[in-house]
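Hi support team,

I submitted a single chain yesterday and got back a structure, but I'm not sure I'm reading the token output correctly. Could someone confirm the output below corresponds to the sequence I sent? I've pasted both exactly as they appear in my results page.

Thanks,
R.
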Amino acid sequence: MTLAIVIAGLLVMTLIGFVARRRPAPNLSEWTVAGRHFGSVTLWFLQAGEIFTTFTFLGIAGLTVVGGVAALYAVLFEGLGFLGLFFLAPRLWAYARDRGLLTQADFLESIYHNRLLGTVSALVTVLFTLPYLQIQLVGLGSIVQLVTGIPASRTVSIVVGGVLIVAFMLWSGIRGIAYQAYFKDVLLILVMLILAAAIPIGLGGGIGNVFSQVQQVKPQTLYIHGGPFDHVWFLTSLGVSAITVFFLAQAGTYPVIYSARSAQAARRNYIFLPLYFLILVVPMTIGFTALIVLQQPVAPDTTVLVLAARSLPEWLLGVVGVAGCAAALVPSAHLLLTISTAVARNVARVQPGRSQFLINHITVIAATAAAVVISVIRPDLIALLALLSYAGGVQLVPASAAALIPRTVWLRAESLTCGLIVGVGVVIGLTAENVNILNINSGVIGLACNLVVVGLAEVVLRTLRPTPDKTRLVVASSSRT
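Hi R., thanks for writing in. Yes, this is the structure output for that exact sequence:
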């Protein structure tokens, strides 16, 4: 029965993705930002759909099991980042609407009048978004395997999930993602409430009892302690993640903001979106429950589903599986939209029109195929890829922050490009060699090197060219449009 419910749920989600549009999207702009017509409610669900991923569904509970209260960083950083987006998103929306921008690289290229910076930033987007796509697909396979108990279902679900995503994405674009996000987020909220009742209350004897027993059995998990998840890890991970969101260094955020109906719709979204993160307390509480309930250790990321299987009937476990699949499919589609549009607009460099739209669609297929193959052949790469994804995006902060904040010191595209390349190289090197420097997040180290290179390059360029380019387009001037 569980497998049948999961299959039915996947088919329903795919159907929702198709009915979002009566006919295929006619051009790349409509496919990517839906004619810039989304209101605040749609934006809320769309961005919540991007945020609540398989990491949120499975990873927060797993991180709580191994790191205790240090997992709180995953609940805090988005809320801190939204403080910046409340002020910066309307400016970005107005600027992008006036110039027909579709990607983060479009924005940086337009601001700095430099195609090389646009291309490099687009390549960085692909480099650090594709691994996160694989994480979603591996999570999808793990969820289906755990809830059905059928080992072969893992590979099959990854392949089928990839095919379904490609099908509705090519047809509907961002409208399909938005429609699916309605279904996904409502279902996830209901499932989280069910899990809260079934696991901490049902298995743990109540939330108060859970924390009382944790205090007796593993008191060190209730505060940030020594080890791999110490104060340094917590603060640097929180800082990197928060400033990445705050200064719009995440390429996936741009299509959501661009698709807003107005500047006020974009701003209003960040007033109410933090409410969504209250639900993230549930997987953390489930993680603490696992510390007192599970006698035999399990893989941390399987904690939610293992406890759900113990406490829920088979049919309801199937519903949990559908919610988990939704937490993989909707973000996967959003990531594909980000990757494919960046390649079509800022890497391939063909004329806008049918050729650009064709390259976009080819990229959707190619990126999905690559992620599916790696997910099936080397799922063990997921930890390395996760580290790369989170630490890499922050390297775009200098360029995006200098572009978005009014009256900042003017920085040249050449220095920002050099800093970006060095920062990305440092992150890849540290992650690939598994170098741990005092538990500091590799993104912080990469960003420090990035800023040093930007500063040195600026000194050299200002010496060679004392008069900087004064043609900067000020985003702030459009903030009230």
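A quick pointer for reading it: The two ends are 53 Å apart (CA to CA). Let us know if anything else looks off.

Best,
Support desk
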